[in-house]
Amino acid sequence: MRFGKAIHREWLLDPNITFLNHGSFGATPKVVLDVQRDWQERLESEPIRFFKRDFPEAIEPIRERLASFIKADSQDIVFVENATMGINAVLRSLIPEFSPGDELLTTSHVYGAVRKTLDYVADTSGATVVEAYVPFPIDDPQQVIDAIVSKITARTKFALIDHVTSSTGIVFPIERIIPILKERGITVMIDGAHAPGMLDIDIAALDVDYYSGNCHKWLFAPKGAAFLWTKRTLQPKIHPVVISEHYGKNYQLEFGWVGTRDLTALLSIGAGMDFLEEHGIGEVRSYNAEVTLKAREVVTKALGVPFGAPTSMLTSLCTMPLPGNPAATDESVLRLHDTIFDNYQIEVPALKVNGELLLRFSVQIYNELSEYERLAEVLTELRAKGILG
After folding, report:
1. Coil, helix or strand for 271?
2. What is the largest CA-CA distance in the chain?
3. Distance CA 130, CA 105 (A)
């Protein structure tokens, strides 16, 4: 087997931990970290030359390559440290355009930090955040569409929709959702935190206004590597979260320099893409999807719970309900995670979605089915002890 234990040594992952949570922060292959380390040494050898000459020259081929990968024009892409930062840049730039009574639409599967950003913008502008309730478990993608459409009003000004939800791991049918929103004159941003590398992205085919995505998850780049895509006509109004010396000049210059920071993660995006391509994009995706479906069957059968979503809505992330559909609090979420980690050395996140306690796992090519079989055994034991309900 090319993947699983045979490839695990290519990461720095602790061999004593069963790591089933690639989705939260990713895990960077050693070979990519080596490239980043080379860039860090180059930076420290002559910082002025690095920031003024080396980085501006070296980042352009990476921008071009990433643009080609997501089928976009490179001049519409800027780099940020994470997808949430890209979303912050857009929403906070648009505060002057929102007025009391305007509605900012999202769903109940929105990422927690993004929901906080929406709350901040609403509090600042007087707008209101409207959350479309998307059920989970879910039976059909149409339920996502119906939930969003049901919350559209004449006051809906902006919509922020996930491509792949962090909380449930399901793929939203954005190709069907975006046209519905645009036909009603609503500005649309896609939170693509998990999508790059996991899914084919065709920005040119999406009539979207903004798209923010991470490179440190499924593109194998180091932490601190993400991008923001903005429709050309809208770029003059969008500014980075940190305003610096190029304010008011243009989109590329403003985001290109926001003060001193470690830019080496961005310069290592190409190495992450190399790693993905060397192992075969199709092969990586197929392996992850196959293990995800098999693992879902093993774990849900052990718990006696239904699947969380149809196969067509899953990729490399899978979330499942727990027996008895226990209510979630911040304390119960932390307690379940810590119980599994501290007692069994399994890293898997507990989550709160629609008020219920859920468990999510990720699959990356360093994982294999036996690890999820072990998770099923642990959950069965916890259920017998009354911990899971």
Report:
1. helix
2. 63
3. 5
